[in-house]
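TA notes, week 10

Several of you asked for a full example with nothing omitted. So below is the full record: structure tokens for the whole chain, then the designed sequence directly under it. When grading your own attempts, check the secondary structure regions first.
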């Protein structure tokens, strides 16, 4: 971003002029999402203003959720949250790619386990029957976004032999299996030490919890999904 001295003769306060200049740089990509902002000293020199003015401008942009302060590291440009339309069934990878973002998946756990009463009801299988469980950490542009646990009927045990750090729906589609519709329940929960550590937030932080049952094209339950989500990095449109 080119240097830009502010105009002290305008009626607009200097801190608002500075906030406007920085906001423009964030929105046009001059300051990339996830990158550190120049130090307060550098901004003072670049824009010819006092540290008080810089701090007021940064506070304004933090209120707008364009910036975030990381203790001991500085001020960073916030990653714009992903937005998913719940009216359609889209994978995390599809959501990221449609917005020009870079998805990544880390497999945490996979295997067979007995279906709980809730899982059995949702998948329409007997309680205690074996189901496929796949737990993964979903990442966008290098930032952890959600922990996702998917459970499938035992007929999908072949999934355990696939590369589960790619798109599950991509794998299913290679076998002609297409997700149809979904039923969603959204609630608030509080992360455990392990969960918050994976997501990079403080223990006990509030997380969005999305519970879904996804049905195939014939209306049969395909899988359940429980997603523990950083609400500052993922939003929903209903």
């Amino acid at each position: 971003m080119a240097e830009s001295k502010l105009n002290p003769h305008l009626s607009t306060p200097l801190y608002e002029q500075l906030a406007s200049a920085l906001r423009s740089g964030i929105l046009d990509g001059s300051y990339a999402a996830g990158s550190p902002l120049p130090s307060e000293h550098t901004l003072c020199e670049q824009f010819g203003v006092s540290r008080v003015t810089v701090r007021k401008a940064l506070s304004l942009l933090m209120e707008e959720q364009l910036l975030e302060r990381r203790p001991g590291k500085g001020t960073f440009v916030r990653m714009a949250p992903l937005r998913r339309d719940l009216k359609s069934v889209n994978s995390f990878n599809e959501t990221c790619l449609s917005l020009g973002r870079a998805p990544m998946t880390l497999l945490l756990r996979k295997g067979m386990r007995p279906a709980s009463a809730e899982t059995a009801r949702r998948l329409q299988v007997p309680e205690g029957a074996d189901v496929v469980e796949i737990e993964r950490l979903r990442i966008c542009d290098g930032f952890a976004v959600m922990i996702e646990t998917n459970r499938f009927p035992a007929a999908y045990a072949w999934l355990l032999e696939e590369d589960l750090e790619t798109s599950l729906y991509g794998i299913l589609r290679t076998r002609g299996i297409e997700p149809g519709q979904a039923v969603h329940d959204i609630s608030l929960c509080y992360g455990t030490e392990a969960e918050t550590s994976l997501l990079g937030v403080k223990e006990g932080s509030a997380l969005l919890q999305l519970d879904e049952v996804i049905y195939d094209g014939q209306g049969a339950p395909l899988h359940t999904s429980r997603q523990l989500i950083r609400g500052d990095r993922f939003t929903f449109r209903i």
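The beta strands are 67-70, 74-77, 82-85, 103-114, 130-140, 143-153, 179-190, 206-216, 221-229, 234-237. Use that as a sanity check on your answer.
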